[in-house]
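Data card: per-record layout.
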Amino acid sequence: MRRLIAAFSLILLLVACATSPLGRSQLKLFSQDKVAEMGAASYQQIKQEEPVDRSAANNRYVSCVADAVTAVTGGQWEVTVFDSDQVNAFALPGGKIGVYEGLLDVAETDDQLATVIAHEVGHVIAGHGNERISQQYATQGGLQAVSAFLGGGGGGAGGQAIMSALGLGAQVGILLPFSRTQESEADTVGLELMAKAGFDPRQSVQLWQNMAQAGGEKPAEFLSTHPSNQSRIQNLSSHMNQALQLYRQAPRNPSCG
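The structure for this 257-residue chain is written out next.
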C-alpha cells in the first residue's frame, strides 16, 4: 500500500506542475473548478459572519474601482464592502472580492485602492491559493486526502479537510498566508492590471507607504505576512517603466473618486 501511495504521489506531483504568469514553476493539485467552488463557499460564509457595509457611496466607489480592474481580466466578479475598520482586502477564486471599510482611510485615491484590489486579483490570476494548498498537502503527506477529494466530490471528511486547510471561514486572511515570493509576484501582476485598467501605477508606491504608516509600530493587518515596505517599493519601481507604458496605452482612465 505504501508503495502504491508513493507511486501515485509521484505521478500526481508530475502532472500537477504549472507555471505562474511570471514563469515560476508551481505545484497545483486541484482543478480551477474545485478551487473556485471552495472560494465561493468561503465568500458566502464570510458574508454571513461579517457585517456588510450598506453605504451606497462606499459600495459605488469600491465597485467602480474593482469593476475597472477586473474588466481587464474578463469574467464577472462579485464585490462586497465589509463594515469593519480593518485595513484589509481579499480576492478569492471564483471571482469574489472583499474590501474592508478601514482600507478606504488608507487608500486615499482610487488609484491607490486599485493597487490593493489589483494585487489581490493578481493572487487569484496566478493561482497562489491552489499553490499554497497543494504545497501544504504535499509537505504534510496529505496526498491520500487529495486523491480522495479529487476522485469523489467536495463532501465528506476529505472535502472538510481541504476547506480547513484553505483557512476558509472567519479568518481575515482567507487563504493560507502567501509566501514573500508570491506576494512580490502579485505586486507585479497587480501593477500591470491596474495600469491596463487606466489607474496610475505610480500611486502604488504611495499606497504602500501609507500602509506602513498606518501600522505604527506593527504592520497593518494587510502587511503582516508581506515583504518589507522597502523591498516592495523596490520591486514595484523595477517594473514601473513597463507599467507606465501600459498606463499610457490604456483606453480610458476611470474616475471613481
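Known properties of this structure: The CA atoms of residues 149 and 161 lie 9 Å apart. Strands lie at 17-19, 25-27, 78-82, 89-92, 96-100.

See the next section for split statistics.
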